Amino acid sequence: MKIVILDSETVSKNNDVSLEGITSQGESRVFGFTPNDEVASAIGDADAVICNKCLITEEVFQSCKNLKYVGLFATGYNNVDLHAAERHGACVCNVPAYSTNSVAQHTFALILNHFSKIREYADMVDKGGWVNYKLFSNFSLPNYELEGMTLGVIGYGDIGRRVAALGQAFGMRVVTFTRSPQKIGPKDGVRAVSLEELLRESDVVTVHCPLTEETKELINKDALNKMKSTAYFVNTARGGIMNEHDLAEALNSGTIAGAGIDCLTYEPMREDCELRGAKNCTITPHIAWAPLQTRVRLLGVVAENLRQWAKGTPQNVVDRGH
């Protein structure tokens, strides 16, 4: 079996995690990064390709006649033309639920940073604001307890459910807007509401749904105007779920109090990204999924997906109706 990995640097920096579980399964070529206009030539006559964000299009399948397997270093699969894969008899496999804990952790890191004012207080101390201060405690910046606040979770899959549980651990009341309210268990202590009610009631609105035609720019000017002026918005899902222009305007005008963002519509960030420099906006470079342990887990599943496909028993198969 001939295997090509197109963008190994998206999961392994300086070989901090091993690709051997994949490369040992056949004759392998590994590219750290492949521009989209070079994807077809990089794949060549390979039987299987493994990638993260490289575009696997109709043209790629037409050019790569042997390609029968696309393995993803990700849960999301919007970079693969599933219609084309089906037409060419290719199997597409993703890695569901590998980053549940890390994304939920990062979500709350952003929330706690905002309400506890971690970055602002650390900056103040670095600039001498506590040196020889007249009192033992310099609480000149207001910070807040999460206890009693309302957490609005958009999407109640694995990550949304985990974020809800963390919110409850902090004493927050949790509401969710989900297309699958039947997934809410009687012991979850979570109430399903309309999107409008969630936006109106929540002190924190956090997004954990996939990017689809239905969720594209779900968080727009209209949605932001329904939120509390003291509300905090978090997006650790997909950038396209929010309208970046509308969010930047809402932050700069004080329509909402702040935002914590780990994903953008265009990645890497463009120089003209309007959220860069917006008021009270904390941006991290799409790292919620990326702790070392999480990437080790991810690569283990990617390798097993390939192994099972080669045996004729594919797992974690994505289809057009998924």
Structure overview:
With 322 residues, the protein is α/β, with parallel strands linked by helices. The protein folds into two domains: 2-96 and 292-310, Rossmann fold (3-Layer(aba) Sandwich); 100-283, NAD(P)-binding Rossmann-like Domain (Rossmann fold, 3-Layer(aba) Sandwich). The protein has eleven helices and twelve strands. It has helices at residues 20-23, 39-43, 58-63, 82-87, 100-116, 118-126, 158-169, 195-201, 221-225, 244-253, 292-310, and strands at residues 2-5, 27-30, 48-51, 69-72, 91-93, 150-154, 173-177, 190-192, 204-207, 232-235, 258-261, 281-283. Strands 8-7-6-9-10-11-12 form a seven-stranded parallel β-sheet, with helices on both faces. β1, α1 (20-23) and β2 form a beta-alpha-beta unit. The longest helix is centred in the last third of the chain and has 19 residues, at 292-310. It is globular and about 70 Å long. It starts with a strand and ends in a 12-residue tail after the last helix.
What brief labels describe this structure?
single chain; 322 residues; alpha/beta; Rossmann fold; 2 domains; 7-stranded parallel β-sheet; 5-stranded parallel β-sheet; 12 strands; 15% strand
Blueprint of the fold:
Blueprint: E1 2-5, H1 20-23, E2 27-30, H2 39-43, E3 48-51, H3 58-63, E4 69-72, H4 82-87, E5 91-93, H5 100-116, H6 118-126, E6 150-154, H7 158-169, E7 173-177, E8 190-192, H8 195-201, E9 204-207, H9 221-225, E10 232-235, H10 244-253, E11 258-261, E12 281-283, H11 292-310
Parallel strand pairs: 1-2, 1-3, 3-4, 4-5, 6-7, 6-9, 7-8, 9-10, 10-11, 11-12
Helix pairs in contact: 5-7
